[in-house]
Amino acid sequence: MTPDASSELHSSAPERITLHGRTFIRYIERHIIAEAIRTIAATINRDYAGREIVLLVILKGAMMFAADLARALNITVQLEFLRASSYGSALSSSGTVTLESNSPLEIVRGRDVIIIEDIADSGVTIRALCNRIHQFGPRSLAVAALLSKPSVHKGTIQLDYVGIEIEPVFVVGYGLDYNELGRNLPDIYRLADHD
Ligand code: IMP
Ligand code: MG
Asked: Which domain holds residue 54?
């Protein structure tokens, strides 16, 4: 493929898409996402200058965010992955959070850890993650979320780095899914009001 063909491919983002029969409208364009990530990376680079950190990436939603953020960091990074699922409907979490990890969480002991999450909605997932990670004695623990819906947070949530604050709408794209579809979209889309 020529470079021209690839840029054409990327500029043809549709205004509306359909996933599982529901309509989503383009909401946050990729250059806004990229700018938000550059800002978070600059802050982390400054806050952790000269240190070595563990990025604990919460799968699957945070994979795109983590891939872009990690490459914008100029400090030494260890990448680890954790699966967090909250069983409920496709549009809201149930409040019960299950965690699965391939590598033992012992690796966080004595380390500077940043949890990388896609979105803080109710905040229940982030709270459960923080409680769990604290049990393994990290030297420090911070949380980075690409998106946050502050008006629907339930109680206080630790959020050290937030990319973009959004309205309480359901969004997909850039890692976020609707029933497992939409994660590959380079832009973020919101559920259409009438849908
Ligand atoms: P919580 O309500 O903050 O615990 O959100 C839990 C999880 O639900 C997040 O990590 C996301 O994976 C998912 N989630 C919350 N809001 C959205 C959304 O608008 N779109 C897609 N997934 C979401
Ligand atoms: Mg998720």
From this structure: 28-191
